[in-house]
What we know:
Blueprint: H1 2-43, H2 51-94, E1 102-103, E2 107-114, E3 122-129, E4 135-140, H3 146-154, E5 158-166, E6 170-173, H4 184-189, H5 196-205, H6 209-213, H7 232-245, E7 250-254, H8 262-273, E8 282-286, H9 290-293, E9 298-303, E10 306-312, H10 323-327, H11 333-339
Parallel strand pairs: 1-5, 4-8, 4-9, 6-7, 7-8
Antiparallel strand pairs: 2-3, 2-5, 9-10
Amino acid sequence: IIAARAVEQKSLWNLAVLQAIINEVTQIFPYLALLVMFGIHITVDKKPLEASTAFTTIYLVKNIRRNIMMASAFSRFFAGALVAFGRLDKYFESAVPLVKYQVGPLRIRGGYFRRNKKATFRLEDINLDFVEGGLNVITGQSGSGKSTLLLAILGETYLEGGNVTAPADIAFASQSAWLQNETIQDNILFGSPMEKARYDRVVAACCLPEDLKELPLRDQTVVGENGTSLSGGQKARVALARALYSKAPLLLLDDIFSALDAKTSAGVWKRCFCSDLLHGRTIVLVTQVPWISSQADMAISLEKGQVNSAEPNIGVVRQPIKIAEVLGGDADDDKTETETPPEP
């Protein structure tokens, strides 16, 4: 990647140098042409250079130069427009219009999905009845289609066949957290009105108070372009808080635990998923964390774009997890919590 960027920068630099040389030649050439014409007039025609002749020649040359420059600029703009139209055509050929599904409980019947029309990978024969108002966990190897399934629910994939019903309002927290160049509070509210009690509870559930104490302006700190001033775990939790604060009945959470350490993961699990904060809301969680599937209302496993298994856990009660269990050890929870450093 670094080598490719270096080659690209070198090409851009060479192009800039070539453009500068062409501009200089374009500026100098008319004056050189005037000198040549005046020299021929004096030496070859053996005539004196009178003022009327000189000024008339200069005026004509300037007009010709202006017309040539306009034609040159028009040709550049025309060529640029052709390139831009070509890029737009290429984009529209690969882009997929946002699909509007029938409003209803989240269900997929005989679904075939691709990221776009030209994608080689696709989800095949997806038949799922998600548990309404419960936790639905999707697991599988990397590349099995977990994120594609979430995008399919959002309607951002190419639907080759099948039927999908989904709620009209959906909250989504992607694997790579997307944040606006605004304050943390604005990113969480995301245009919704402020409800102080609800806001404070969501912030606490995402284990953000300790992080906010270390920031100069607390939740009024501007996160920068796409959250550059925050760590990966902080960005993931702000994106999660945005989804939780929304009142969407369906939450799609793409591997939110991957950027969190053991202590923070245990805290988020306890405060978000083991409380009544998500009561009555349908959650679809993509994760690689092994202990979560056993506490889900529906455990779905994908393999090579197909549903390998979909097992409901009737009557499951979610319980807080010990940090030692997150780490895979047997140490006491309190002892491990004091020894585990806070997330940077």
